[in-house]
User: Fold these one by one.
Assistant:
Number 1:
Amino acid sequence: MPIVSVGGISVDNTISFVKGSQISSLTASDQLGYAIQPFIQDILNLVTESRDLGKAITQATQKHEKVVERLFDFEPSKVEETFSLKSQFLFPQKNPLLALQYGNNLYPRFLGKNGTEVIQDESILPEIQNLLYLCGRSDLTYNQICQQISDRMIELLDKLVKCSVVEEQPRPASGVPPETPGIFRLQHAALLYKTKTTGILVDPHLHSNYGIPRLSKDFSRAQLQGHVDAILISHSHYDHWHYPTLMLFDRETPIFVPKVPRASIMCEDMQTRVESLGFKNVIAVDWYADPVVVGDVEINVLPFYGEQPLVPEYSQPKHPELRNWGNTYLLRTEYYSSWILIDSGNEPEFSMVHVAEAVKQKFGSVDQVVSNFQPLSYNSIGIDLSSWGIDIIGNLLSNPQILSVTNQSKGEYISTLGPKGVAEICAIVGAKSCLPYADSWASIGEHSLHDRVLVPDVELELKKLGCSTTVVPWAIGDGYVTNGSNGGSRQVLLKSAIG
Ligand SMILES: [Fe+2]
């Protein structure tokens, strides 16, 4: 259809987020993490030389006196055993969202295509959410948006336009094949589950600065318009938990989050956070609770064990509530069933193997297992904190004695499933197929960084177990979709299905 132009402005042009745009958030806990990071980095550098954590803490303290005095406790005679973040920082009463930063990384910094919206009072957040949602819909013109927002939000909209975060441009086409049941692989840990009528988005990161910058082909919020009926959040690690992305969706969208008994430096109260952004339907239920049905998808909330900063030498956190609280999700539809294992695995007292046995008993076989295949070990994560998100500081400080063993090259303790654990789970639940994900960002059509090594590793482990599960080597943007009708239907790989 030709684009009609009125007074130089196309009436078909709508506001949407553009390529290269990014929004990120800064909380009080993030700020604390940035203040503490240099101190912890020095401890790690020193402990590598001396192999003596007490000595390393004492030496690093001399350089970071103010940080230590204000934030840490330890007994000078028993430094290694007693070193801890003060209780009020381990369990902060409040963790306000201090700022939203925005910009477009396709432009050099000197062009000033970036800005910061300082949040003086969190009561403004629902207004900002509404603005970002209206822009994300990609079906409203600038004027139509302005009619629905306050003067202050019009000012922010103008800044977003000026910084090339959003632009008025031809209305983008949807990137999702209609009425095609299946799973679609977005960036890193983000997945879109579809039936013919319902869409469920998992751990979304859109227009985020977390992945690889300047991807030649990436997803935009516009492509998902009309395809998201609920959002599932697995856990609060930053590669899975990105508030600015959530703010791009309708505030009526049900959002599932893990139930957090007590907010901590390790894991914030995700329900409170999402509600503060303006969302009205936030679901935080117990593991094994009765399923919640969205459209024609049954959502079962199951335990997330593993990925705790615990190692055999230091197997208990400073406090039992200092957990990386999370959910795994079993989705059941008339077309397929799929268990998303996220980054789960093993910890000294719990294992996903036990959950898999309970799943098999309660639900029978599961068609697909979708999991991070990477083996993550807190005692071999290395000492370069700059290579991790700022959330790793909170992880390490929940059990700071592990600072003495974070650079081991032998005897690592795998806290995720890794290839062996993934194969074991597939065997227990009788999975027909197994799909890798959550192991990095890549351009649409490309395989993520670690798949090439990890897919054969999982295949080998499955073979050792005599398990017939097929590993599906899908790329970013591919779908694993249902082909055929009920009874004769099967799942097949659909290349470059989305994007
Ligand atoms: Fe994680």
Number 2:
Amino acid sequence: MASLFSVHNGFSTLFWEATWLNDLPLKEVFPDLYDISRLKYVSVAAMGGWKEGMWVWGDFGLSAREVEVLCLEAVYEEFIGWLEDFVDWKEGRDSVEWKDSEEKVFTVASCYNFYNNLRLHYGPANRNDEAFELLWKLDVPFKIKAFGWRLFRDRLPVKELLKNRGIPIPLDDLNCSFCDNSLESSSHLFFSCLVVKNIWSEIANWVGKGDRVDVECLSNFMDWHLFFRSKKVKVRKLGVVWLATTWIIWLVRNGACFRKDEWNVNNTVWNIKHLVWRWSFCGKITHPNYSLYEFCKDPLHFLS
Ligand SMILES: [Zn+2]
């Protein structure tokens, strides 16, 4: 169904993106690890080196701490297992075979079938795939990106998810921690809850954005992203308001859920603005030494 790379010296086979170790590219078998790897589009040979006649893999552009924060240790173990099993190094350049043709050589017919199958099986790329790439680029602490990633992948421990995993929660406690009116799913808690919509609407008003609310997480992220892009906000700042808003909503929710903390929309909105101001000093900044007060009057100016 696709081209299959046969690794010899590993210099011309893409480590994550090509099909060489098994029937699928590693980025499809281990998408979570691919998301956080800093070494994309590099060859197999670039991922390690020879030491006293033995091949030794490097770190694959992955940080142990990030793997731990995202609870990917088991996935990582499996990934390493796959790679340690690979011993087929040979002299000379890597070669490509077409799995579709019986003779394993390139023919126009096999190429045609390959593209046809691609279209049938995979369809067009998801228009929101870009969101993941944008998220990892942002100038915010890693902990926050990890939170955003879990929200994108619907892996935050909201009540719906806990219930689906069979964790016992009393039925009367499954409702949204804010409105107590709907099942607490991730899309309700962060986007469609009427209480939370007030917070989004204040933030939208603050930056001069229209009040449209997309209840699907990635579409919502991209909607805000496109708004900030149209305002010439820097690439590394494009998602910070969105992340600050969802992160503070999550903290307020946890306080209300576990400690019965008091909260209100005004304080929450203020906390979001304060956080965006603090993060505006992460990474390269073009306007140093501005106060929270100045920032709040014209946030787009300081993020651009
Ligand atoms: Zn609600």
